[in-house]
Each structure stands twice: as structure tokens, then as C-alpha cells.
Amino acid sequence: MAVGRVVWRLGRTVLAVWALVSAVFLVSHRDADTAVRLALPDAADLGRRAALDPAREAVAQAAVRRRLGLDLPLFYASRRGPGWAWHGARNQYHRWARQLLRGDLGTSFRTGQPVAHRLGTALAVTLPLTGTAAALAVALALGLAQALAARPRWAGAVRAGLGALQALPLFVVASLLLLAFANPEALAWFPAYGLAGPAADPAAGWGLTLAHLVLPVVALTLAALPELALQLEATLAQELGAGYAATARAKGLSERAVVRRHALRNALLPSLTQLTDLLPALVAGAVVVEVVFGLPGMGRLLAEAGAARDYPVLVGGVLLTGAARLFALLLADALYFWADPRLRWQS
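Given the sequence above, the corresponding C-alpha cells read:
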């Protein structure tokens, strides 16, 4: 029964991701004229060239439209006059869906490179960034929540600090880190912008790359930490008031031992739901962090693709974000099976 529920949730999520990506594809490609104009050589001089030779400019736009595959109808049917015209399988959506099912994400309007290559290059930056931030946020939340549950004297101040940090937008957190630790007027401990590595500076090696990633990782970790820690600490406090915790104390266990050996696993169950939203939230946060710190990752790629109307890259980015959501659901379900033996007995 439990396995059936997991399969049902996965199937429903896959359909939702497909519907979302299809909607993004159809809505974005309705503005194909702007994408064609921006893809023309010397797009900045478009108005002057059209005024000088409108016929030649129209021919150039038609050629670009054919090259980008935008000369076909958008969908299977479209409104034409008072009725509807049926286009069959010869349309942009059908061709995109067929290519996607074969693993082909298309070609970038902006650079002519395969979308998979551009996304892979960006993911080489974003995955270490978000993965490291997720691991640090979870580890720090576990340690901090257990420490707070033991009710030390400094618990109130830490809770207030976490609440204040949770209220700050990620853009503000990233900017404050830049001003504090990448500022010659304060502490210039880390690089402020961009990404370097062996290709850019062979003498520095990967140490320079890691230095560029420190502040972005810290920003994402600080953004995710308060909600995880406060939720887990509140659940731990509730579990510590249960009868089994009182019995454990009566046996002579310290408060920290009661938390670690008895209350933690039960408290983790409600908090596992947050892991479903953690990875997508970090991917969304990477958009802000990568723009602020100038990192060539998914966030910056999608921001530039949106400005350039590079629709294949945008659609591919939405698909990857949906896949991250699907992976997070899988991870949460697996953790539920690990943490709650009752689910294993039911399966």
C-alpha cells in the first residue's frame, strides 16, 4: 500500500511537471516575434535597418524564423478567422515534445549550442553550490535544534537571531555578506564577483574556485537554516513533554541523551516534509545568489535567457526545476520509510 502511494505521487508529480513545462513552452513561444528580432545580427540597429530596407529586413526575419523552427504553427490547432484550423503533428509543440522524449532539449536561440550542454555547464556550478548549502543547512539545523531543545541559557537569544535571519530576504543576506567579507573597506577575505579556477589561473588551482563559492554557499545556508532549525526545535520540545521522555529521564538519562536517543527520530517525521521544499527552494535561491555574486550557474543562465528571449533554455530550466522537485519527493518518501517503521510494516 505504501509503495502504491509513492508510485501514485510520483506519477501525479510527473504529470504536473509536464503540464507546467508545456504551459511555459506555449506561453513563451507566443512572443516569438521578439525572439526573432533579438536573434538577428546587429539586433540593436533593427529599427534603422527596417526603415532603410523593410523588404530586406522582412526576408532576414523570415530566415531566422525558419532557422529557429518558429515558422511552424505553435500548437495542433489555432484560431483562424471565425473558426479553428487543424495543423496536425506539424507544429512547434509536437516537434518539441517528440525531441524531449528522445532526450533532446533543443538548441539555444542565443548561442546555437545544445540546451543540454548549456544547462550542464551551468549545473556544474549550481549543483555543488546548492548541494553543499543543503547539506550544511540540514547538519546545522540538526545540531542547533538538539542544543536548543536542552534549554540552555542562550536559547532565547539564538531563537531571536534565527527569527530575524528568517525575516531577511536572500538578496539582503547576500549583500550583507558581500559588504562584510568581500569589501576592502571592511574584511576582504573572499572574492566578490565571478568564478575562477585552473583554466583562468593555473597557479591558483581549485582553491580559487572554492574561495569564490564560500560566500554564496553561506548565503544559501543562512537562508535555509532558520526554518529548518526552528521547526525541528519546536517539534523536539513537544516530544520531550511526552510520557516516554519522562520515563527516560526517570532512568537517569541526561536531557541531551533523551533528545538524541528517544525524541529526535519522532521529531524528524514532521520535519521531513520540509526537505521536499528544501531543494527547490535552494534552486530558486540560487537564481538570486548567482546574480549577486556573478556566478555562471543556472540562476544567471536563466536570467540572461529571459532577457534574451532564449525560450529553449528557459523551458529546459523549468524542466530541471521540476525534476528537482520530483527528486525531493523521492528523498522525503525514502526518509519517511527509514524514520517510521510503521510504514515499512504496511508496505
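The longest helix spans residues 255-293. Try to locate this feature in the C-alpha cell string yourself.
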